[in-house]
TrEMBL record:
Species: Dysgonomonas macrotermitis
Protein name according to UniProt: Protein involved in gliding motility GldA
Gene3D superfamilies documented for this protein: P-loop containing nucleotide triphosphate hydrolases
All copies of domain ABC transporter, residue ranges: 2-229
UniProt key word Transport: yes
Alphabetical keyword list: ATP-binding, Nucleotide-binding, Transport
Domain of life: Bacteria
Amino acid sequence: MIEICDISKDYGKEKALNSISFSLKKGEITAFLGPNGAGKTTLMNILAGVLQPSSGKILYDNEDISANPVKIKSKTGYLPEYNPLYEDMYVREYLEYAAAFYLPKKEIQGRVSEMIETTGLKDEYRKKIGALSYGNKKRVGLAQALIHNPDILILDEPTNGLDPNQHQKIKALITEISPSKIVLFSSHRFDDVEGIASHYLILNKGNLVLNDRADNIASIENSFYDLTK
């Protein structure tokens, strides 16, 4: 379990996050919703170790991640909204490069082949990344985030910009892999996570305004649309 404890992030006088607290559990897909500019990406960057909070702490299995940041990063897969990819590299070449940061050399080829199959890149892995469609670039980013079989998966707008068919396939894939992971799925659209999330968080202007189970979906949906009118 991950516990986010009173996390705040300040940029000068501007407060991007204001004492945010919640928990993330293994086997759950937690939807992280809010309008653009709510602070979702800032919090995910803190969770991934890209940013340091101004105050507060994050516990992973009761251990403060600031005490051993390399350990938590090795257990985390992160797909940013604008995932940076080396577009001159071939898909398989890039995934082998990413895998080499985490895996023993003898395991790389097998794991890359597995991720190509899992993420639906069987017809694309011989191509250069720059030649791929937007949807297939998302798949490469997801394969990279999963390459080391992380315990924690942080997904920032993973379905944004996809056509309806790609959208459903990515949601199905995330659902399939979720039982063994802690999954945080960020979106500014309710339908991105509807039907797959078991827990919902709504952030607005740096404040956590809702933290609820999917059992209360009607109330959650109304709260979300009230914020985005």
